[in-house]
Specification:
Strand content: under 5%
CATH class: Mainly Alpha
Order of helices and strands: HHHHHHHHHHHH
Number of strands: 0
CATH topology: ABC transporter involved in vitamin B12 uptake, BtuC
Shape: globular
Largest sheet: none
Distance between the termini: 16 Å
CATH architecture: Orthogonal Bundle
């Protein structure tokens, strides 16, 4: 029998392939919403590695997402016209360029995670949250004042390369990677840091290294999600990656149950779909959404979806 992470990946890829095969039967609105669900899963599961499994409290995930969004968009906006011209390109060529752009965005976000992680991850709790929040705001302001990247107006006319299959495939890859990582012998280090950082350091674990690794891996997938987001919405602005976006991702992790991948996946899907379900009462949508979150946190402070954690 396949190990659980491999089985989960196989099921996820089969689901992604099945949905992709029948995607022509969905209208554009449904495809857009489902694609956003996949992006939300990538963001929530990657942050869960940091907040849930390593026990840190990062509020800068939207900052890493913005790095991936802008850098991947810069790649496609610069190279697509030169490579494909006005006639466009083959599906394989477009896919190769898009994959390269996403990888560039992910690596750039990971480097940003490393840059902020090395000096700040010796901090804990509220202090770390403040540092990561400040980092996210610094990124937003820098982007807002960088004319090469569109300044306050952002980037427009981004190629529409993101599809449902791309989104679900990377969501499956994110879940698979995080699952394998936390179930490995190395992954026990993350859990040790979460459960008792002082005890982990006392037995010889380099707790800062484990936190930096979690931070860099989480930032990498946040950058991938940013690239997918940019090539889905075709327009990005610095304001779309502000403090509110980071809080939205944190809520997904907390609602799903920190350290529980399946719960976080379900919470990401729920919180992405809920605003769409409430569109008929648009004027009260955010009030109802906020009240539901308050009630859920009062009734289920341990997370709405509480599943058994993975064991190594």
């Amino acid at each position: 029998m396949l190990p659980k992470p491999h089985l989960a990946l196989l099921v996820a890829l089969l689901v992604a392939g099945g949905i992709g095969f029948f995607s022509e039967h969905f209208n554009d609105y449904h495809l857009h919403v489902l694609t956003n669900v996949g992006i939300a899963v990538i963001l929530a599961v990657s942050l869960n590695l940091v907040n849930g499994y390593t026990g840190q409290f990062s509020l800068g995930h939207a900052g890493f997402m913005s790095v991936g969004a802008y850098l991947s968009s810069a790649v496609t906006l610069h190279f697509a016209p030169k490579i494909f011209g006005e006639d466009g390109g083959s599906a394989v060529a477009i896919g190769a360029l898009f994959f390269t752009a996403l990888f560039v965005g992910g690596i750039s976000a990971a480097l940003a995670g490393l840059l902020v992680g090395i000096p700040s991850l010796r901090l804990r709790g509220d202090y770390l949250a403040i540092v990561t929040l400040g980092f996210g705001e610094i990124i937003r302001v820098v982007l807002q004042n960088t004319d090469v990247l569109g300044g306050a107006l952002g980037l427009n006319n981004i190629p529409p390369y993101t599809t449902l299959v791309w989104s679900l495939a990377f969501a499956a890859l994110t879940v698979f990677t995080v699952s394998c990582l936390v179930r490995s012998t190395y992954g026990l280090g993350f859990i040790s840091v979460r459960d008792d950082e002082i005890a982990a350091a006392a037995i010889g674990l380099d707790t800062t290294r484990y936190k930096i690794v979690a931070f860099v891996v989480g930032a990498f997938f946040a950058g991938i999600a940013g690239g997918l987001y940019a090539h889905l919405n075709l327009t990005i602005t610095p304001g779309g990656f502000d403090f509110t976006k980071s809080i939205e991702i944190v809520v997904m992790v907390i609602l799903g149950g920190m350290g529980n991948i399946l719960g976080v996946i379900l919470a990401a899907a729920l919180l992405t779909l809920l605003p769409e379900v409430l569109r008929p009462v648009a004027e009260y949508r955010m009030i109802i959404y906020s009240l539901l979150l308050i009630v859920l946190m009062l009734v289920r402070p341990q997370g709405l979806f509480k599943f058994k954690r993975y064991k190594s």
